[in-house]
Amino acid sequence: MTGKTFSYKNGIWSNFPTDEEIAGAGFQFLIIFADRELLNSGNIFGQLKEKFKSSALIFCSTAGEIHSNEIMSEGAVCVAVSFSKTTFQIAIDNLDNYSNSYELGNHLASGLNKKGLKYIMTIADGHRVNGDELLAGIQDNVDDSVVISGGMAGDGVMFKKTLVGIDDNVKEGNVVLLALYGEHIKIGTGYHGGWDVYGPERIITKSEGNVLYEIDGENALDLYKKYLGNYADGLPSSALFFPITIKSGEDDFFLVRTILSVDERNKTMTFAGNLPQGSTMRFMK
Predict the structure, then answer these.
(1) Total domain count, the chain
(2) Are the C-beta atoms of residues 31 and 79 closer than 8 Å to each other?
(3) In 3D, which of 275, 281, 128 has the Cα closest to residue 206?
(4) Contact, 55 vs 167, CB < 8 A?
(5) What is the pLDDT of residue 157?
(6) Which one of 181, 206, 241 terminates a domain?
(7) What residues make up the domain containing 50?
(8) Which of 30, 39, 54, 102 is most buried per CB count within 10 Å?
(9) 124 phi, psi to nearest 5 deg
């Protein structure tokens, strides 16, 4: 495997591979994490396609970009990859073509070649897609030994829309699967959270899928704002700093749920994953 990571900020590329490196490596695909407005402009797409003519370009909008030990915003981070022995398949589809996120995930995964499948990276719209349902749809179509990881696109602090896609097919509602195959690749995944819980344990008393209505019989959004204090004035962007956690089944394993949108008219909050009614939850900071 050959990999090259480089970044873009204020119109300047850093560590961009030379023409000789690009020709020698034969990069098969690039994964580009970038600010939504930067993707909207189409500027970096044109620059990258000019240099990486035969490479697939996978795009994902962000709420910040990380390159090495640097955290940026309003920029882009690119990872260019080529394999000598591992094969891959890229699939894309849009939520508008299905009645729900489960069907989208199910159809995408059903189209993958299953022979030798080791890993699926999932990159999904982060504003409209239900991550739980998408994952369930994928899992129902692959063997339990297949590792699945990935994430959902961001939108800075705007919470209006996110963009995902391949080459010039970059838009809302898209989900991309990158599948890797063969015996020569070893997959490892990990995650780390920087959140602390605060306040008492509470019960989700009314929810529907990933939409939260009531906690302990109280309106969920009103209670959430009460706990946020002055930060409530910054919603929905301040929700980035205050997710919630729910207890999974009978275990003491907790799932973090981040907020996708706040509906002031209906007094509801929509999250990136499901919130089963009756679940134990706590606020986080």
Answers:
(1) 2
(2) yes
(3) 275
(4) no
(5) 86
(6) 181
(7) 2-181
(8) 39
(9) -125, 150
